[in-house]
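Minutes, project check-in

Agenda point 3 was the complex the collaborators sent over. CS summarized: four entities, 502 residues total, and the question is how they sit relative to each other. Sequences were read into the notes so everyone works from the same version.
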Amino acid sequence: MLILYLAIMKIQVFAVLKDFFDKEFELHDNITDASALRERLVQWNPAAATILSISRFAVNDEFIDNDFQFKENDTIYIIPPGSGG
Amino acid sequence: MLILYLAIMKIQVFAVLKDFFDKEFELHDNITDASALRERLVQWNPAAATILSISRFAVNDEFIDNDFQFKENDTIYIIPPGSGG
Amino acid sequence: MTPSILSHQEVVDELAYISASPLDIIAMLGKSHNPRAGAIVLFSGEVRNHSNGKDVIYLEYEAQEKMASKMMEEIIAEAKNKWQLTIAVAVHRVGKVAVCESAVAVITASPHRHEAFTANRYIIDRIKHELPIWKCEYFQDGSKQWGGNCNCHNITGEVGKHVYNA
Amino acid sequence: MTPSILSHQEVVDELAYISASPLDIIAMLGKSHNPRAGAIVLFSGEVRNHSNGKDVIYLEYEAQEKMASKMMEEIIAEAKNKWQLTIAVAVHRVGKVAVCESAVAVITASPHRHEAFTANRYIIDRIKHELPIWKCEYFQDGSKQWGGNCNCHNITGEVGKHVYNA
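CS then shared the predicted structure for the full assembly.
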């Protein structure tokens, strides 16, 4: 019998991404990096593919690279391009 | 007997030029254009040659060219380079 | 309230890069004088009553406030150092902002004008392109629209790389 | 005083490009909002306490006021038209100006920020290079100096032709 370890990730999205996902949600998954998370979210809601492709991810209030390895209980922010000012 | 017609010109100078000339004075001379006036003022006070060479002349609140012909009773402003702001 | 809490409050006010209450650009300008500063430049980005061919009622700004604050602080420190500014401050509103209210304000000062102008433009350009702050426009016709995200990635080929006019 | 004289006074105030009394940049900024203007840029040129290695007490500005006013009006009209500005105002002080006081102020506003920044810089550059206004610095040591006339003629080869950074 195969046991998959499913990590808990807290996700928070902003601005227009809230039209596609809940503002905050948890993901129980075996995803370990940002690239995989992006793919997972696109599978989940294909309509968000374009905005996700130009959004950046952040952990601990710092932008992360695509190969950043998540740790258990990380809060991941998904940051679309800014439109401040 | 030769009679020279001496026109009256009112001259007004500004800023650093006041270190070389009275702020306002009259010139009774047979000068007819701006070039000649500049030469006349340099003869009068050679120390002002440099600043006069980079100053502009104005009549009726408009800058004039070197060949502008003065009329009797014109008030001529001598305008050194600006240093406002 | 003890004096130490009061003075902490003052420090926090000085560092408030993101504000939920209206920006008092008049008060900001009033504080921005320095006997070494010959040139002061203020930029105020204000809400227009018209956008995308529609009448605007108000905007609402959202931010990832911790990241936005930290990035603002870094941008200002970099500009202050690069152009040897006498004064550099910037604040961005969050929440509802009415027409004619200021959504973002930047003040720079330097001995001569070139630095104050260049640095001010640099700071506002980076704020508008890079900070995790987003506007949503609310229109008279009842519709809303998340605002003009920057499209620099189309030019640079990389998300998070930007091009600037200045 | 009749109402007509009062309203004439107001018109004159609006057109006061040269001022013998302190510039109230706070009041100028307070008036500079417009629902079509998304970007407001204010420049204030203020008197520094140090110049040419000496301590400055105050400056004194002299102007050929009629010409300076007329040129200011033309520069502002040109900028307003060229960059389609919503607001364009400028005032220059004459007489004694103390350290930290504003000697010249320019406000520009436009729908987007590029125009307001570019036009503001254009207006102040032309004011500083072209207008018949001169400063005299009065120093702590009792000396005075007529100030840094522009040297553009050394580059352009022609008096009255200027070069600009912007």
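Noted in discussion: Residues 17 and 72 of chain D are 7 Å apart (CA to CA).
Follow-up: revisit at the next meeting once the mutant set is ready.
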